[in-house]
Amino acid sequence: MATRSIALRSGAQMPMLGLGTYKLGAEGSDSLAADRAALETALELGYRHIDTATAYHNEPFLGGVLDGSGVDRAELFLTSKLRNADHAEGEWRGALERSLEALRTDYLDLYMIHWPLPDHDLYLSAYAELARARDEGLIRDVGVANFLAPHLDRLVSETGEAPAVDQIEFHPSWHNPDTVASCAELGVAVEAYSPLSRGADFGAEPVAAAASAHGVPASQVVLAWALQQGVSVIPKSANPERLAENFAVADTTPPFELSAEEIAAISALEGQNQIGHDPNTYAGMQR
């Protein structure tokens, strides 16, 4: 199965559907065997885009499974993120090198600043340092996560370049239209975390109606809604059936397509349900 992809600034192709791995194989987990089986199943299905972060505490687990999977590194698209505690000068390189070692690779396809932490005001210098690591070949593309339009505008104004990707909370009931518009203007690819909103949007009338009309699960409708707008998605699941359902939507010949009217109706749910933290104030994930 061929999956849709998007070209990043480096020219690399990023699969538009990846596997979110928050808590999957995390240190101290009592479900490591099940988590390993889930990741192995995802790879067997064809998942090649794997998203993690230092703050997820699962990079060693992922590195071990990926290294033993038989999948060639060149086929994989690996993303990790700079921990909030490592924005300061002198911290970021050690953090990046630890991620590379844990993931058993000598480069990352995409490395992101996990949160802007505007009160700390270090994201500009951190971005400049990551751009240097990109120039050294340790990173293929530099991205950001949870950056809102003002953060992006300042970053571009001060550094002279836009990030390759902005990973933001994006689902029918909270899809950050101002930030998405800013990304479009700046040429930044948008990637959705929590694209399934933990099922919160599945019962909404326009989602349920589209699912019924196309004879598909609500989860596929929500993913198709994002993908048809050019937004990449990283849903998380450890269920083999759900993994397969999610992956099918990203086929270059998708099983169904939403109409413009269906997309507009689903988009009208905006503003009802923010799951994550406010990027203007959040300062957690320090360890």
TrEMBL record:
Q: Which CDD domains match?
A: AKR_AKR1-5-like (cd19071)
Q: Which InterPro entries does the record match to this protein?
A: AKR (IPR020471), Aldo/ket_reductase_CS (IPR018170), NAD(P)_OxRdtase_dom_sf (IPR036812), NADP_OxRdtase_dom (IPR023210)
For this chain, one GO molecular function annotation is: oxidoreductase activity, acting on the CH-OH group of donors, NAD or NADP as acceptor
Q: Where is the NADP-dependent oxidoreductase domain?
A: 17-269
Q: Name one Pfam family in it.
A: Aldo_ket_red
Per the UniProt record, the site (Lowers pKa of active site Tyr) maps to: K81
In this chain, substrate is annotated as bound at: H114
Q: Which residues carry out catalysis?
A: Y56 (proton donor)
State the superkingdom.
Bacteria
What sections of the protein cross the membrane?
none
- Which keywords label this protein? NADP, Oxidoreductase
Q: Which PANTHER family match?
A: 2,5-DIKETO-D-GLUCONIC ACID REDUCTASE, NADP-DEPENDENT OXIDOREDUCTASE DOMAIN-CONTAINING PROTEIN
**Family the UniProt entry places it in:** Belongs to the aldo/keto reductase family.
Task: State the protein's name.
Answer: Putative oxidoreductase
Organism of origin: Dietzia timorensis
- Taxonomic lineage: Bacteria, Bacillati, Actinomycetota, Actinomycetes, Mycobacteriales
